[in-house]
Write a structure and sequence with these properties.
77% helix, 14 helices, globular, mainly alpha
């Protein structure tokens, strides 16, 4: 309960400070830079080498791809039936197909389940959500905006992403037993800043206006992202007989609210950015209740 209160408090402080006239210019961007380029890579370098390789690790890597590809099928079908614009379909695929598995995901998994679940959660984030965003997300955004995707842009996006480079280093040192103990201690201290700062940053960027006019779209999108998709992933894990931290971390990552970065991508490609921000805001608020419930059920 204390961990959830901490997350709710950090999110609430972010929401309050976003309306404060003295908020320094570029504050969310500065926080996001630290979270993505310092705190998250630090956790990756510490936690990934601790994992024991097994076929189970394929599950959290593949599960976010099911959520994303399922969103492509679902929202293309629903969008055509309901007469949505191409921009709206693209925005729904991006925001309801990609989960906030980095900012909120790692923070919530650690808070709800402990550090032992962070490694598999990183696998779900890096091999699942991040690759889906960098490849599938960019392609979807380009298709629905009318601009042809560039393979060079996709490659540069991946190679220029600090957590991805940290993951490569972590995989290299994995067989060697990881980093020296003293470095692990220092990096873990740095990585512990991820939880409060990530939720504070999300709070700074939440936008909740216009819910009434979009409630049906929100209900359908978040119903897929936060209920139907993770429930299907859970059923797959149960069918395969998977138990323990690895599948649980994968399922929780699939239940995360929409990805903030996916909303930024939708805005860059002009894919109904107002709706994209609304989906992210409402989903983030709801996740403070839905994720502890999902963890308890697991």
């Amino acid at each position: 309960m204390s961990a959830i209160l901490l997350l709710a408090l950090c999110l609430g402080i972010g929401l309050a400070m976003a309306r404060h006239e003295r908020l320094p210019p570029g504050a969310p961007q500065a926080l996001n830079f630290w979270i993505v380029n310092v705190a998250l890579p630090a956790l990756i370098l510490v936690e990934i080498p601790k994992l024991h390789f097994s076929r189970e690790l394929l599950f959290p890597a593949v599960a976010p791809w099911f959520v994303f590809l399922g969103a492509v099928v679902v929202f293309r079908f629903v969008g055509r039936r309901r007469g949505w614009s191409r921009g709206t379909i693209g925005a729904m695929i991006l925001t309801c197909g990609l989960g906030n598995t980095a900012y909120m995901g790692l923070a919530m998994v650690e808070a709800l389940r402990g550090a032992a679940y962070v490694g598999p959660a990183v696998i779900a984030d890096q091999f699942g959500s991040f690759v889906a965003l960098s490849v599938g997300g960019v392609i979807v955004a380009a298709i629905y905006s009318g601009a042809p995707p560039s393979m060079g842009d996709i490659a540069r996006r991946m190679l220029g992403f600090t957590p991805f480079l940290a993951l490569v280093v972590a995989l290299v040192i994995w067989p060697l037993g990881g980093l020296p103990e003293v470095l692990q201690t220092v990096l873990m201290r740095i990585g512990q800043t991820l939880t409060p700062l990530a939720l504070f940053s999300v709070g700074l960027q939440l936008k909740l206006g216009g819910i009434g006019a979009q409630w049906k779209t929100l209900l359908g999108g978040l119903g897929w992202k936060m209920v139907i998709a993770p429930a299907t992933v859970f059923a797959a894990a149960w069918t395969l007989g998977l138990h323990g931290p690895v599948p649980v971390a994968g399922i929780l990552q699939c239940a995360m609210p929409p990805m903030v970065t996916a909303g930024i991508l939708a805005e860059q490609y002009k894919l109904d950015p107002v709706l994209a921000n609304l989906v992210i805001g409402v989903g983030t608020i709801l996740s403070l209740a839905s994720l502890p419930l999902a963890s308890a059920l697991l």
